[in-house]
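Notes from the pairing session

We agreed to fold both candidates in a single pass and log them together. This is the raw record for the first candidate, unedited. Please don't reformat it; downstream parsing expects exactly this layout.

Candidate A
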Amino acid sequence: MNQRKDTYRAALQRGPEVAAPRHTKVTQLHTRYLRVTIELDPALPRDLTRWVGPHVSALLRASAAVLRPQRSTT
């Protein structure tokens, strides 16, 4: 328990790690009743492609196999 407390205190004293700043695209929407700020990370399309790409390609392969005409072996 003491070791956990010491580790926690040491982490608090170190402070946050400074990451490389990422440029974001900021879009603001102002209406009479609502104010919204949306920040988009420019790396989002790349991350999205990396996460979704394998699933989409597997789905395309499966659908191509289903739609492929069955050869009759007569």
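Candidate B (folded immediately after A)
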Amino acid sequence: MFGDMMNMMGKLKETQQKVEDTKKRLDTVLIDESSNDKKLKITLTANRTIKTIEIDDELLEDKEQLEDYLILTLNKAIEKATKVNEAELAAVAKEGMPSIPGMDFFK
């Protein structure tokens, strides 16, 4: 029993390291999003760090319109990045979880 517990602890540490490695890798996964008319383009990482924002000069003439574009486009980009982030981290966590009857939370 003690050996099983040590083995499980080793697997948990290994899984923790894989999760940390995946988080670092997600810093290099870029998500691109743009407004429907392509006047605003945003790139962020799968860890939801904004990398670039490109704004068409036409949008600079109307502050309220620019704000609306930023809110809509940033929210779409963040939603996409969150889905990628959660899927990647869930896959790593599920891979490292021991098989315990009745504890299949990650199915």
